[in-house]
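# nightly structure sweep
# worker-07 picked up a monomer target from the shared queue
# config: single-sequence mode, recycle default, output format = structure tokens
# input follows
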Amino acid sequence: MTMQPSLHKRKSALADGTEQIRVLEKTDCSIPAFASKLAEAGIQPLRPDGTTVLQVNTGYRCNLLCRHCHVDGGPDRSEMMSRETMLHCLEALRRSGIRTLDITGGAPEMNPELPWFIREARKIMPEGEILVRTNLVILVAGTKYRHYGELYRDNRVSIIASLPCYTRENVDAQRGEGVFDSSIEALQMLNSLGYGTEGSGLALNLVFNPGGPSLPGQQQALETDYHGKLQEDYGIGFSHLYTITNMPVSRFLESLLEEGRYCSYMHLLAGHFNPDAVKNLMCRTTVSVGWDGTLYDCDFNQMLGLRMRVPAPGNISGFDEERLRERLIAIGQHCYGCTAGAGSSCQGCLL
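# output follows
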């Protein structure tokens, strides 16, 4: 498989979250501040509704270099969550009422502690939900990773898999040459283990995101299309499709600026602001844990380095549900991405 060259080089100023925030907040596109938009709708300040999901980023290393990646993941990333930090995550699960563990990356499978982490989490949450976000390709990338399908099955892990289109041309253009064929192979392997099969209890959910600066189509209609094409062409079944809006951060932000489409995209997002989506924003029920244990309101804030506000604890080692409930959620112009149209979250559209 041939990987594309990185579109977000470490030497770029935009590799730093602080610079991304500066661009997002200072670039004059004649768009109102997101905070003022919330105030107009009578929903400012933005507060949490209680934590039901612990989202854990196990590291930024990835075997792919996707054009849209808001994590800026790649093979050259060295950030990796330690077992010590995972132990703090497990203790937070043990002490709280949280019953959904959402594991993400990078490619989570590239953290060698992942199997241990999953098995320990299942002991703590025998009936809870454990999610793993995979790029699929890693699951068929040699013998080192091919056992992960069985690991997920044996621990009743729900899989959320990236597949931004059901055509080879579009997937390879966005994610790299050969990614589509490897993704199909991985999906067929997961199907053979029972994933995506009705009544198996093994959820296999796919993720769609647009290939460029546009809003995703209607989620249910796209899901129907995916079901038809994947079953007809490859005999693949899956549970549900999630549509996620491309966030104006990291590589996607850089490509928007390079192509001169940043302001037009921000106008698109702001022009489709939907106050009804705000009540379901993932930041209101999710705590995002960075690879080093730092706490954020969501995965996107994590990538910008936009930490939780006091009195929330700064690190998972100091997890405290009461202090988390008392915080105000950190927001910025990028939040237009989650509130445009039907809304967007790591679990798909919000409405």
